[in-house]
């Protein structure tokens, strides 16, 4: 068996392993709902900006209106999601990914 064939078989074994399937499940269980929630939040902002101008124009204090607050919250939510994903990955994904990486490295030696 050539090195290339051996590498392919190792990766095929990893791909079908329970640990790898669990890693994919954990990744998808967090990213898919979070992506959907963010898209809904973003589209809500766009729709309100286009069709609820009176609501978005309500002044909250000084020259600060609802639209400006929602716009700033878009940035805040983006940074929050990045921070939350980083924590999720460090706790739930990285340990399992490290374990799989070490197993692959051992098989390749």
Automatic annotation (TrEMBL):
It comes from the Bacteria. The chain crosses the membrane at residues 30-52, 64-85. This is DUF485 domain-containing protein. The keyword Ribosomal protein does not apply. The keyword Transmembrane applies. PANTHER family: INTEGRAL MEMBRANE PROTEIN-RELATED, MEMBRANE PROTEIN. It holds the Pfam family DUF485.
């Amino acid at each position: 068996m050539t090195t290339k064939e051996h590498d392919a078989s190792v990766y095929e074994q990893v791909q079908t392993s329970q640990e790898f399937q669990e890693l994919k499940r954990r990744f998808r269980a967090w990213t898919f709902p979070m992506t959907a929630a963010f898209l809904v939040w973003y589209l809500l902002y766009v729709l309100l900006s286009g069709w609820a101008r009176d609501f978005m124009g309500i002044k909250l204090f000084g020259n600060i209106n609802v639209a400006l607050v929602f716009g700033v919250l878009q940035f805040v939510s983006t940074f929050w999601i990045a921070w939350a994903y980083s924590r999720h990955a460090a706790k739930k994904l990285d340990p399992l990914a490290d374990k799989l990486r070490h197993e692959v490295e051992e098989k390749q030696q």
